[in-house]
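Comment thread on ticket #2218

A.B. wrote:
> Attaching the input chain for the structure job we discussed in standup.
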Amino acid sequence: MPQSTNNETRSGVISAIAAYFMWGLAPIYFKLLLAVSPDEIMIHRVIWSSLLLLMIVIMSRKWLAFITIIKQPKILAKLMVTASFLGVNWFIFIWAVNNDHLLDASLGYFINPLFSVALGVVFLGERLRKWQLLAVILAITGVLIQLVSFGSLPIVSLALAGTFGIYGLLRKKLHIDSFIGLLIESLLMLPIAIAYWLFFVSSDTSNMLTNPLSLNMTLFFAGVVTTAPLLCFTAAAKRLTLSTVGFFQYIGPSIMFVLATYHYQEPLVMAKLFTFVFIWLALIIYSADSYRAHRQKRLSLKAGSVV
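C.D. wrote:
> Ran it. Output below, let me know if you need it in another format.
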């Protein structure tokens, strides 16, 4: 393997780890804003993400591609739908972190890959291999354990997994640059965010002119928290296969789990622990099967090239 390929792979791995580490540590940032309501944090996340993404698109010379897309009403309509799911996902995550439901958020992002597999079966006609089917059954069993024990579903977890999974499914069908797509989605949310800020928010922190500089800087960093992991993720996706990137996706919810149980002392009752155990078993089986299938595909391709 050429040295340049090795360097590209190494750079991709570092970028993937950095992306998922930042996503996993994001709750620490949002915990700094406990004095600010989730809806107000959401406003700042939309506004400053839009500004930063606009700068990135301009500096990366993707402005013409951006102009081309916004002139297509059908694509804009589809991005409006994806923006709705993304916005709901952002808000639920902020609410979960600042209302001591970080464990539920962690569970949601553990469930997400398996939920995405189920969406692929239903909407894309994909077929499950037997081990993938077992993984999905284990995940459903884990959720049912919580239903039987508490008499209610883990709504926050399922909402996070569902909104992000559907968002990923819809964006998969749109062949648009990730930064341009996210910029347009943020810009579509921007008028709503500004209108809500001007006419419906009347908290002590809503006027940035009277806020301490430290608070305003923390609010501004909502944009950085959103865009920085995406920068790293995009860099990783360019250098690694998606299946390889997928193996790093459990870093984020794992960090959230550790933060919730050891740092923020959220109670981990036995029923919820059993749910996590079933989800973890499902993910181990799913990941092992995905690795085996990916390895077999590579071997078959090599054999074909030799012949």
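A.B. wrote:
> Thanks. Noting for the ticket: The mean pLDDT is 87.
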